[in-house]
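Subject: Interface between my chains keeps coming out wrong

I've been trying for a while to get a sensible model of this assembly. When I model each chain on its own everything looks fine, but I need the whole thing in one frame so I can look at the contacts. Pasting all components below, labels as-is. Any help appreciated, I'm running out of ideas.
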Amino acid sequence: MALIVHKYGGTSMGSTERIRNVAKRVAKWARAGHQMVVVPSAMSGETNRLLGLAKELSPDLTTPELQRELDMIASTGEQVSVGLLAIALQAEGMRSVSYTGWQVPIETDSSFTKARIQRIDDQRVRADLAEGKVVIITGFQGIDPDGHITTLGRGGSDTSAVAVAAAMKADECLIFTDVDGVYTTDPRIVAEARRLHTISFEEMLEMASLGSKVLQIRSVEFAGKYRVPMRVLSSFTPWDIAIDEEAKSGTLITYEEDEKMEQAVVSGIAFNRDEAKVSVLGVPDKPGIAYQILGPVAEANIDVDVIIQNVSHEGKTDFSFTVHRNDYARTMELLKSTVIPKTGAAALSGDTKICKVSIVGIGMRSHVGVASKMFAALSEEGINVIDEKYMELAVRALHKAFEMDLPPA
Amino acid sequence: MALIVHKYGGTSMGSTERIRNVAKRVAKWARAGHQMVVVPSAMSGETNRLLGLAKELSPDLTTPELQRELDMIASTGEQVSVGLLAIALQAEGMRSVSYTGWQVPIETDSSFTKARIQRIDDQRVRADLAEGKVVIITGFQGIDPDGHITTLGRGGSDTSAVAVAAAMKADECLIFTDVDGVYTTDPRIVAEARRLHTISFEEMLEMASLGSKVLQIRSVEFAGKYRVPMRVLSSFTPWDIAIDEEAKSGTLITYEEDEKMEQAVVSGIAFNRDEAKVSVLGVPDKPGIAYQILGPVAEANIDVDVIIQNVSHEGKTDFSFTVHRNDYARTMELLKSTVIPKTGAAALSGDTKICKVSIVGIGMRSHVGVASKMFAALSEEGINVIDEKYMELAVRALHKAFEMDLPPA
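Reply #2:
Try treating it as a single job with all components included. I did that and got this:
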């Protein structure tokens, strides 16, 4: 008998028919003798519907007071899900009980719409498990020290599931999703993309931070911190698939580096179309210039990703960095009004049609020549800076160059 | 400066456009210097949508475990409403904060889907009011001693509003609804129905218990127990109607009987199409026979309304009573299988096409002849037992006979 956490995404919970299938799958695991905790997301489309209503009432939703109300509203999507799943499980003849974030409680800080989990009290859940109940806990949400409802931000249900698994010292946390595991890259772009049976925690973290949408990055960080055994697998297999087969499917995230992994130099290719590039041209190359440019950007709460400072020429340099596309207009405005006059830069340029392609693999540590092989592959295709329209071509070229379509030797 | 509670029904909260109007109306009252607490219902249709999802998953939802989950689900409708209204108020430039039942907290017993309020802690609300915030509280729900979410049953938001008003010792509780007050009878049936400017608490209680849908009966009981000044008025007047005019509109529920009220012998006519009649025929007329028939019915949790025992004839009598139509089939089954054999009754008959028409008025106490006038009016129209199809005719005939279309002298 093991203690198992299942997490189901919004697509898996998208209709009563699908919720019934989730219940049957969970019941199968419970009947096999496991103690089960389930963390479902809101029914697909529900969170957007709720936030859409809020936006109709106020175009600006940025103050803490407004964000508190957003969390009050958005958290109901998961509350409906857990209640429905508990009913579906009882209709299957199982005992079950659902809890919201505040009922467990899942304690967070007070950063509304992007709160961080600080502590999970597992007493109530353990008592129910001991009585033979399946316990269903809302993802995505918690309660702050003042008793306000908080949410963890988009994809937060992954984090909730892993955090619950860590708090309960679960034997495994299974993330059921609409893909059947972690791939070398997005199979919709590279037909030869291959599913990985295992991926190291560090590689998964890289993949997530570089734009892979399979797992939310904070859930991977959480899993790493507490070394939670975590598996990504499909919720679209028939619910009555043999449990032994299901338990070995998908992609397992591992914490020990074994020999096999050492052999794979590059495990995956991640990409990201959400960024925009900003360049400050002809800026005097003095110590502290990077801070003069990036300080005001950071103060405006704009996250900077890649930073490139060109070689200086006659005491002047070009300084480029990337930001999220949603922050592009605000960044350009900020640079124009404050940074340009203060630094004496010659000009400003920007590009929203860029993308970022990254290769991922812990094997790169001990292998030279990965970067040169990457640029060689791109130059063979005539790709220089990766304009958005060449992104898919670039990903396919790299996938082939690193022989990622072949299983590891 | 007064402390005022506003309650808005589901129709008033039915769209973001309407929520914006509610916010403007509340803001008008707050800007006039009042401390404002608002209790809104779920957006119209939302509670039915949520319960519909639950029913798709389980045809039977009667166990306490399932009803607990129903409350988990249904309570989200009001949670969304309070968050949206708080946002709308902030968009109007007001400070506001929303609370769920468990956050206030509104403490109830553990009767899921029909819980009763036991205690309301007003500390948190008072602190916010003192800071100049409009406080918005979910109707319909509370928290039980074990930290489970409970709901108060259909129309429970009226009860929540009155209970909050009682706990806060509010100066007035305004129930905004889709009718503009309490009428002598339903204006959709009698065109001459007249709005009452005041109605006594006892009459309102009668009207509610006899089928008038304007206010939920438990909210009226609560108002009476704590003598909460309560007014029913329209939410469909323009939001910017002068506050002095609005404050005097609708129908005020009063607790003192003044002379004017004494003059109105009959204040209203209530009716109800939800009942069915059951008759046990030719039952031996012995002491305890009523208990032998009604005991098993009560044990099966079936509410009995009107009871009629006919004059005994040769030691036998006919015993009739009414139950809710939803309980009709179950009642007939129960009588057939247990009561008939035990009492030796000759036969059983039933009628689901009946209705109940009642006349209401505290003035009846000191006036004789009301019942005879009622039956005279009905017999003039040739109405004997009120078959459902004659109900509207009966209500119109009584409304005219008691001159209820004329303002009180």
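Reply #3:
Confirming on my end. Chain A has a mean pLDDT of 89.
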